[in-house]
Amino acid sequence: MTRREIGVTGGKTPLLATDIIIMDEKGLIVLIRRRYSPFSNHWAIPRGRVEYGETVEQAAIREAREETGLEVRIERLIGVYSNPRRDPRGHVVSIAFLAKQIGGELKAGTEAKEVKCFEKIPLKLAFDHKEILRDAFSVV
Description:
Blueprint: E1 15-23, E2 29-34, E3 43-44, E4 47-49, H1 56-68, E5 70-81, E6 92-104, E7 112-118, H2 129-139
Parallel strand pairs: 1-6
Antiparallel strand pairs: 1-2, 1-4, 2-3, 2-7, 5-6
């Protein structure tokens, strides 16, 4: 089989990431305040890249723990977000999940200035997270 037949063209490939909307025990939404650019100081859904050898679900659970200190259980898939301009650093395709807190203690990870639970979503959100949150609550 040739490289062309299996779809290997030698061109650029988008990065794969996960976004995870976490609901705490009270039904509040957990967001992080970003430490680094892009969107430094904006609120964001915990997110991160999928590492080689892990599933997207494992990546989402890992990122939730690393960024918020919380242990979560994935409840459902929200959607796949693939707009090439959704991240100013480059083309990132993200698979977004809705999850519930099942343990852990809320604390900001190294990439977050702050982590907080919200009843009402703040206006200053990073990336396309307003769209993801809107999609999440239209299916809940």
